[in-house]
Amino acid sequence: MNSTDHQGMSFSALLLALTTGVFSCIAIATVLIVLGVTDIEAYVFAGLGGVTVSCFVWIERSLTSQLREKERLLTLAKASSLEAQNQLYSRSLACFVRFDAGSLIIDRASPGFVKMLRMPTDSVLRGQRLEEVLGVNPLKLESVVDSIKQGDASVKQPKIEMKSADGFSTHALLSGQYFEKEHVVEAAFFVPPVKNAERVADLEAAQKDLDRFRKGMFRRETRILELKEEVNLLCREAGEAPRYKTDNSSDDSKLELPVELVESLPFAAVRKGSGH
Questions:
Q1: DSSP label at 4?
Q2: 122 and 95 in contact (C-beta within 8 Å)?
Q3: Which of 34, 58, 84, 268 sits between 20 and 30 A of 225, alpha carbons compared?
Q4: What keywords were assigned to this record (predicted)?
Q5: pTM, full prediction
């Protein structure tokens, strides 16, 4: 309601109050004169009666106008709240879900809630039971919902363990608000950075595998250096120059011995004899 409309309603209320007061004054004066009351007394009582009626009419119209304005503002606030709610449940990546406080049947869910459960983006959760979607114990979920309905701020924010559509387990913090008139709960889920024991165990196992791989590589490099040193020793015994460097930067691709050197080794004769 703008200022022009408000001024128009105030003027109409004032005009109605004055008109009603004047007619009331005339009616009261006429009745009193007919009853034999003196003119002065009749006019005084009629004037007081007219003013009183005008005041009542003015107050009634003012209160009615204020009530209509409050109703209009309330309607706008509800529309704005509904629009914001529609925005949250249609576009927001935050994990919001609205469900019945008794049956735990989902009414609405945000795209972020669907994404948190690793479901297809076009999944429709309306009408499904919340504990089945989350993969949690119904008694545990009902206990959490009861704490939300009680609205005890001193209670620590509950944490539940849920399973996604692909079987992945994770913990999520839950915060909600209970609407008694509609008997529904609007809840928000927050998945903190993963620090649970299972993921830590997986990380430790991966670290152990990496350590074993590194140790295996170290042993392999050490063995390569030993073999190179043995080849160099055989070369020296055969009166030839060493063929390999034995530092850590040497290339193990040169580990294969020359043919003439291999044939000169003792085990080469054994292999030739076995071949014949």
A1: H
A2: no
A3: 268
A4: Membrane, Transmembrane, Transmembrane helix
A5: 0.49
